[in-house]
Amino acid sequence: MTKTIIVGTNxxxxxxxxxxxxxxxxxxVVMIDRNTNLSYLGCGTALWVGRQIDGYQDLFYTNxxxxxxxxxxxxxETSVTSIDxxxxxxxxxxxxxxxxxENYDKIILATGSRPISPxxxxxxxxxxxxxxxFQEGQDVDREMARDSVKTVAVIGAGYIGVEIAEAAKRRGKxxxxxxxxxxxxxxxxxxxxxxxxxxxLADHGIxxxxxxxxxxxxGTDRVDAVxxxxxxxxxxxxxxAIGFGPxxxxxxxxxxxxxxxxxxxxxxxxxxxxxxxxxGDCATIYSNALDATTYIAxxxxxxxxxxxxxxxxxxxxxxxxxxxxxxxxxxFGFNMVSTGLSVAAAEKNNxxxxxxxxxxxxxxxxxxxxxxxxxxxxxxEASSRRIVGAQMSSTEDISMAIHMFSLAISKHxxxxxxxxxxxxxLPHFNQPYxxxxxxxxxxx
Length: 444
Fold this sequence. Notes:
The structure is a single chain. By secondary structure, the chain is α/β, with parallel strands linked by helices. The protein has 3 domains: 2-113 and 245-314, FAD/NAD(P)-binding domain (3-Layer(bba) Sandwich); 117-242, FAD/NAD(P)-binding domain, CATH 3.50.50; 333-441, 2-Layer Sandwich (Enolase-like, domain 1), CATH 3.30.390.30. It has 11 helices and 25 strands. The chain has helices spanning 11-23, 45-49, 64-69, 134-144, 159-170, 191-203, 299-314, 343-348, 401-410, 415-418, 435-441, and strands spanning 2-7, 27-32, 73-75, 78-84, 89-94, 99-103, 106-109, 113-115, 128-130, 151-155, 174-179, 207-210, 214-219, 223-228, 231-234, 237-240, 244-246, 276-278, 285-287, 292-294, 327-331, 334-340, 353-361, 373-381, 387-394. A 5-stranded parallel beta sheet has the order 3-2-1-7-18. Strands 9-16-10-11-12 form a 5-stranded parallel beta sheet, covered by helices on one side. A hairpin with a 4-residue loop joins strand 19 (285-287) and strand 20. The longest helix has 16 residues, at 299-314. The protein is globular and about 70 Å long. This is NADH oxidase. Residues 3-306 form the FAD/NAD(P)-binding domain.
């Protein structure tokens, strides 16, 4: 028997555990997590808080008992205090203070990410919340129910910030959305797209404060104002959604790290210690757009890395196919999806790119209902002409098209190969001159 310990039981750890338990009967699996629950779909928090779904119950897709039935030993509400990588021992402490240790043959670190929390004055006041754990979602939901909470400040206009700003607005709150950047969602989209999202947010009553870095939180016991370089704003509650960084504390003195502090892993999810694997948000990942190792914290990536690690530990050599960082967002019925690199992200990574834009109706103009405008941008490397990114937006559901671009990036398809791609036409779905085709044909 090979004994594998998995530290962390959210998406990546669960995927690794299922892979080992379902495919390799010679595996003894031990799972350890400090939380009370596992498998929480944090991406659904805003839907629940904003009352777009009935409750949080279905945001959990498995439980402790499911793994015990498969033969795993699982410790919940248990903290790993330290790991001796030389002796291969994990030291643990239960909620009641009881300590114990577990030895291992292989270990998977699936410790995820932790929210960025600038230590500005007043950061420890009551009424300042984060949105990572299920319990934090519960806290935010309870606060939203209070009549005294009328104005909510959301700090950070990335995916989580924009989504929770929408949720707060749907709960009838005055919402102020802050970001040090000059627009929302700058990590995934170019300005041509984020201008539309910013207008969408403003049109739905969200007060935008872009280009404003929060310098201080004010209040005696509870926060009652936020202060930026441009002013002081009275608030009743703050939700901090600045972003996340890798939670890589256990191995930082033993394992090789990436520039941002994440565990550096190979295409098998193996760290610099051959008996230690790292998966999910605490580890690096290979980008097919960059053709290089990078860091992209997404739940979809976490699941894939967990599967890869599980098979490799089990004895089947599986190499990660790499990722494109495909993602999407839907706010007040306006949808944006992207994969690979935006023009801004490519330039930040010193990649010389060109791009082609196209805008049209989703369907022929004689289709009067459910026929919205679509924007598309395809980004391609100037020298090789391979596609390295795509962005799309519409009030229509154009989400599935981005998967084609994800495959195109992973297979190094060129913009020229896309020009005459066989794309069907039917008025119920699209135009005879499809916007994907038209964008490709318009490329230099």
